[in-house]
Amino acid sequence: MEQVGTAHEGEGDEGGGNGIHEGGDPGRDDRGSPCLRRVRRLEERGVILGYSARIDPAAVGRQFVVNVDFELAGQGKGLLQEFEQALASYDEVVQCRRMLGRPDYQALVAVADLETYERFMTEELMALPNLGRLESRFVMKTVKSDLTV
Predict the structure, then answer these.
(1) Reduced to 3 states, what is the DSSP secondary structure of residue 95?
(2) Per residue in 109-143, pLDDT tens?
C-alpha cells in the first residue's frame, strides 16, 4: 500500500511549509494581509495545531473501518502507558481514546478488508500488553465524518 504522509511533511524544509503562508507579492510587506497575520498569531498561540487534508480511505486501501473496544487486565500507571504506546505505534490505528468508564480504550482501525483486519487483530492487537478483552464492531456506513472544528 502506498504510504500517505502527514500534513506536516516539508515543514521546516526549504520551499516546504503548509501552503497557507506561500505565494503573495514579492514586493509586498513580509507581514502579509490582516487575515494572514491573524492566522499566524493563532498558530503562535497554539490555537491552530496544524493542517490536514481529507483523504478518500478507499484510495489508500483503508476503506474497512473497525471500532475496537479494549478492556485492560490491570490499571497501574505503567501498564496504561505501555498499552497506549504499543497501540499508538500501529499505522492501522487512526484514532485512540482513553475512556472514563468502560471500555478502558476505544480505537478506530482502518485497513483494506476483513481478512487484513482479522490478521492485524490476531497478530498485533491480541498481543498488546495488559490486554484483558477486546471487542470489534464493523462500520456498515459512515453517515458523518467531520473531525474539524
Answers:
(1) strand
(2) 999 999 999 999 999 999 999 999 999 999 888 89
Beta-bridge partner residues of 98: 105
Phi then psi for 36, rounded to 5 degrees?
Answer: -65, -40
- Report the alpha-carbon angle 77-83-85, nearest 5: 100
Residues with Cβ within 8 Å of residue 86, at least 6 apart in sequence: 128, 129
Shared-domain flag, residues 61 and 131? yes
Please tell me the pTM assigned to this model. Answer: 0.70
Domain assignment present for 112: yes
Q: In what order do the strands lie in the sheet with 131-138?
A: 93-98, 105-111, 64-72, 131-138
Q: Domain of 14?
A: 8-53
